[in-house]
């Protein structure tokens, strides 16, 4: 405990780090405040009463099914008809599209290799593509809140203007939703540039954590209303949740270390001495889950397709199951897609051929493996072996909310925190932010040592 308090003091004593943290917290507050500003055409008080009525009937304030999942990423702004309803997700979608297009379009491949100027151009392309994605998602969202979230018989009380009017409702609402998403993107980039951590990921994490208190309170109320055993069940749920978080951290940081031996050749008379001198031993850390949460994001994007098919044949109970994130149909297909996308994304992001070439060029080799193609095949073999269990564990984490829902956890909202994208994003963002803070502390410590050494040297002189 003393070490933790001392670390907090060290963080606060660094003016640069303190300013970055305060700026980050300030921009997060702006983002959360904006998420409570409703669209001008929406009667926010009436929408709140409708959501309360839905919740009293056993539902969740974040909605149900896939729409509720989207709402959880925006901190409830999606279900509140907020100006920030689309949140940062259009930017995430645009980034994924640009990353995938970079595999097939030579121009984007060239930009990826052009250093800082190329990254700036890719960022600009991503920003414009974000606006394009918003122009597609905004009308879809407006359709959802007029046809799904709000009962059809209460349109008059939920809207201040005619929801069928293009001039009064659709056009202004689309413009405001696009502006809100662009503003969220700007806040994320400012946090990345001027604050601490990855701004885009932090905004997603904040949106997810915003739902945690209400979800826990709802779960606590549901459990304790059943009798004296409810408090014990809540304690069991919290302990199990902490165990799941610990396992998620292990999955995020687990690596397979490949030993690398760097060697050098000593010059001899008349040529090069073939005897290799032992150099420094290092490691190539291959992550068990090198793809992170991207396979889950890709799979969730595709899982909307079966749900849309329900609109074609609403009487088909099998297809109807794909609209419920807790159904067995949804989760079996979801797990299979995650395993497939994990191998796919790992293959395109871990260039084993380039790694083998770089090792050969820098005089490094894997012990008992020849440089070049054999090294590439060896790395590919190891990567495939660790990716299989990594993908299976990732799939289990993704469908864990459906497993605990109805068996251990009673409410939809709290069940979503037992795995899936929500938990992995929270764990990944926290680990990344803590690592950046530790880097600042270490750099300050090293600067202090260097300054003391320089001062002692100058005194000796």
UniProtKB/TrEMBL annotation:
The central subunit of the protein translocation channel SecYEG. Consists of two halves formed by TMs 1-5 and 6-10. These two domains form a lateral gate at the front which open onto the bilayer between TMs 2 and 7, and are clamped together by SecE at the back. The channel is closed by both a pore ring composed of hydrophobic SecY resides and a short helix (helix 2A) on the extracellular side of the membrane which forms a plug. The plug probably moves laterally to allow the channel to open. The ring and the pore may move independently. Belongs to the SecY/SEC61-alpha family. It is a multi-pass membrane protein. InterPro entries: SecY, SecY/SEC61-alpha, SecY_CS, SecY_dom_sf. NCBIfam families: 3a0501s007. This is Protein translocase subunit SecY. Component of the Sec protein translocase complex. Heterotrimer consisting of SecY, SecE and SecG subunits. The heterotrimers can form oligomers, although 1 heterotrimer is thought to be able to translocate proteins. Interacts with the ribosome. Interacts with SecDF, and other proteins may be involved. Interacts with SecA. GO terms for biological process: intracellular protein transmembrane transport; protein targeting; protein transport by the Sec complex. Pfam families: SecY (PF00344). The keyword Magnesium does not apply. Keywords: Cell membrane, Membrane, Protein transport, Translocation, Transmembrane, Transmembrane helix, Transport. Gene3D superfamilies: SecY subunit domain (1.10.3370.10). GO terms for cellular component: plasma membrane. The chain crosses the membrane at residues 21-42, 88-108, 128-146, 166-187, 199-218, 230-255, 290-312, 332-352, 386-408, 414-434. It comes from Halpernia frigidisoli. It is found in: Cell membrane; Membrane.
């Amino acid at each position: 405990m003393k070490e933790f308090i001392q670390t907090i003091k060290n963080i606060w004593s660094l003016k640069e780090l303190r300013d970055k943290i305060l700026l980050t917290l300030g921009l997060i507050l702006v983002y959360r405040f904006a998420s409570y500003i409703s669209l001008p055409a929406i009667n926010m008080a009436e929408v709140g009463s409708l959501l309360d009525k839905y919740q009293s009937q056993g539902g969740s304030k974040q909605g149900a099914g896939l729409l509720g999942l989207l709402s959880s990423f925006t901190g409830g702004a999606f279900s509140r008809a907020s100006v920030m309803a689309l949140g940062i997700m259009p930017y995430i979608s645009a980034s994924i599209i640009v990353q995938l297009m970079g595999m097939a379009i030579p121009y984007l491949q060239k930009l990826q290799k052009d250093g800082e100027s190329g990254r700036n151009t890719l960022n600009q392309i991503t920003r414009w593509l974000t606006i394009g994605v918003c122009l597609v998602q905004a009308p879809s969202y407006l359709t959802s809140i007029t046809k799904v979230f709000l009962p059809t018989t209460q349109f008059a009380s939920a809207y201040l203007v005619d929801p069928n009017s293009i001039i009064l409702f659709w056009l202004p609402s689309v413009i405001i939703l696009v502006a809100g998403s662009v503003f969220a993107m700007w806040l994320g980039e400012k946090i990345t540039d001027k604050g601490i951590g990855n701004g885009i990921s932090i905004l997603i994490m904040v949106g997810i954590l915003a739902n945690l208190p209400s979800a826990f309170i709802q779960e606590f109320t549901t459990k304790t209303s059943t009798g004296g055993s409810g408090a014990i069940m809540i304690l069991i749920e919290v302990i199990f949740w902490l165990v799941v978080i610990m396992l998620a951290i292990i999955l995020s940081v687990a690596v397979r270390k490949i030993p690398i031996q760097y060697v050098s050749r000593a010059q001899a008379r008349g040529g090069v001495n073939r005897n290799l001198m032992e150099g420094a031993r290092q490691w190539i850390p291959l992550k068990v889950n090198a793809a992170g949460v991207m396979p889950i994001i890709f799979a969730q994007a595709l899982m909307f397709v079966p749900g849309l098919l329900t609109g074609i044949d609403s009487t088909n109970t099998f297809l109807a199951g794909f609209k419920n994130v807790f159904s067995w149909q949804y989760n079996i297909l979801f797990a299979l897609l995650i395993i497939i996308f994990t191998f796919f994304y790992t293959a395109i992001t871990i260039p084993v051929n380039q790694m083998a070439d770089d090792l050969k060029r820098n005089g490094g080799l894997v012990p008992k493996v020849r440089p070049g193609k054999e090294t590439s095949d060896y790395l590919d073999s190891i990567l495939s072996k660790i990716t299989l269990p990594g993908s299976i564990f990732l799939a289990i984490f993704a469908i864990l909310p459906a497993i605990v829902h109805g068996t251990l956890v009673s409410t939809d909202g709290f069940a979503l925190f037992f795995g899936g994208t929500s938990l992995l994003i929270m764990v990944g963002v926290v680990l990344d932010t803590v690592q950046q803070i530790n880097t600042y502390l270490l750099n300050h410590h090293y600067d202090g040592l260097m300054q003391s050494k320089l001062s002692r040297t100058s005194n000796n002189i």
